[in-house]
Design brief:
With 207 residues, the protein is an all-alpha fold. The protein has one domain. Helix content is 73%, strand content 0%.
Length: 207
């Protein structure tokens, strides 16, 4: 199936956005650690890129779906729907923290938002874990889309690698220290999006 330039262009720019926002999120997260920071500045550098990452990743997975050949679209559509779930889950968490939890905490009224605090084994970390589990599963299900060339095989490898850590991510709600094992995401996710970005760029140039 020959893809048109619009699909490839949207795929390229969304994959670029996914890569950049993932890296912008990863750097401060590595410095701060696995816990959600308390300071306003640290929260900004963690949450804002994460919200943009969710949007970019969703668009990237829509592009993967339209890139897929007809016989592989059942897999890409499952991946796309899981990306929607990821977008919804994580933005509920981050938007709530930014607009509800943080303002109340800064005003000295943290007791009224105790349930909405981002602390280990809390309601918020549970929703966040569901979000990143959905993200990982999205790439796992979409992996069969990529076959044939060496580059596509590498994309499939990293999509699968990003997907198989989903049980680890989900388990962080019960065992928070498992987040260190799930930290392989900092390699598998950006590399997945970088390789898809390269694929889109090469195919655009060949049209």
């Amino acid at each position: 199936m020959k893809n048109n330039k619009t699909i490839l262009a949207i795929g390229f720019w969304s994959a670029l956005g996914t890569t950049l926002f993932a890296l912008i999120y990863i750097v401060p997260q590595l410095i701060i650690g696995i816990d959600m920071p308390e300071s306003k500045n640290d929260l900004f550098w963690i949450l804002i890129p994460s919200m943009f990452l969710a949007f970019s990743f969703l668009i990237m997975m829509v592009s993967v779906h339209y890139y897929a050949s007809e016989d592989k679209r059942i897999w890409s559509q499952i991946g796309m729907l899981l990306a929607v779930a990821y977008f919804v889950f994580v933005n509920i968490v981050y938007f709530t923290i930014l607009t509800v939890t943080m303002p109340h905490t800064l005003n000295g009224d943290s007791a009224s938002v105790e349930m909405l605090r981002y602390v280990p084994k809390s309601f918020m970390t549970g929703i966040d874990a569901l979000g990143y589990t959905s993200m990982s599963l999205a790439t796992l299900f979409a992996a069969p889309v990529f076959f044939g060339t060496k580059l596509k095989k590498w994309i499939r490898i990293f999509f699968i690698s990003n997907g198989i850590i989903s049980p680890i991510i989900l388990s962080t709600q019960i065992y928070p220290l498992m987040a260190y094992a799930g930290a392989t995401w900092i390699l598998t996710m950006p590399l997945s999006s970088i390789l898809f970005m390269i694929l889109c760029y090469r195919e655009m140039k060949s049209l």
